[in-house]
Write a structure and sequence with these properties.
Blueprint: H1 3-27, H2 63-83, H3 94-116, H4 126-153, H5 158-180, H6 191-225
């Protein structure tokens, strides 16, 4: 795959994901895990996973919302595939190449897991859905760490290093929260904190992934000038 094309696929897949999710929110019929009478989608009371359910929590068929949700996740899988080309940008240094390769492979698996969330509706395949959702974020921790090391050793602008560091730290904090936070299904008071935390990590992740592609572009330009 052409490296400029790979970078652009990663860049715009993240933007398409956000757009697709917003459209899915618009079409969501209503209801949350504690209130089936809620109208439409709530940013503070509905998980993103609610968008992919076969039925909404109000009991209505969730066809349009789940379709856009699955489409958004499917497109993001392309970012995972494109990421496998990124190590070629770092092949002017053997150590950087292997760090970026490990990161790219883990990012690819994480992106595939993330995409699988859209094809395992929580109301039909709950255990599988939770497995893919949780492990997609866990895989992003070592993935972003390896990429960060490769970028640091490549002397990329500090601005981009701060961005991927934010991605790494926020993902670590979210994974910790998943293990120590309350259960929103059992306790209604835990719903809003869990919902907000999920949205923050997803949107921060997508924005960081979008911005980090500019670090890859900078590295590619550096390489071409050598």
């Amino acid at each position: 795959m052409n490296l400029f094309l790979a970078i652009n696929v990663i860049r715009y897949s993240s933007i398409f994901f956000i757009f697709g999710v917003l459209v899915a929110m618009f079409f969501y019929p209503g209801g949350n895990i504690h209130d089936p009478n809620q109208l439409g989608y709530s940013f503070t009371s509905n998980f993103l996973s609610d968008l992919g359910g076969y039925e909404s929590h109000s009991g209505e068929v969730n066809f349009l919302s789940s379709t856009f949700f699955a489409l958004s996740l499917s497109v993001f899988a392309l970012a995972g595939i494109a990421f496998l080309s990124i190590p070629l940008i770092f092949d002017d240094d053997k150590i950087n190449f292997y760090f970026s390769l490990f990161g790219a492979i883990l990012f690819f698996i994480g992106a595939i897991f993330f995409s699988a969330v859209g094809f395992t509706p929580y109301d039909l395949y709950f255990e599988e859905h939770v497995f893919f959702a949780k492990n997609s974020f866990r895989l992003m921790i070592p993935a972003s760490f390896f990429i960060l090391v490769a970028l640091i050793r490549s002397k990329i602008s500090k601005y981009y290093l701060y961005i991927i560091s934010l991605f790494l730290v926020s993902t670590i904090l979210y994974v910790i929260y998943l293990n120590v936070g309350g259960n929103p299904i059992e306790n209604k008071d835990d719903l809003i904190p869990n919902v907000i935390a999920q949205k923050l990590i997803v949107f921060v992740s997508m924005i960081c992934i979008f911005l980090v592609t500019f670090a890859f572009s900078e590295k590619l330009k550096q390489k071409q000038l050598i």
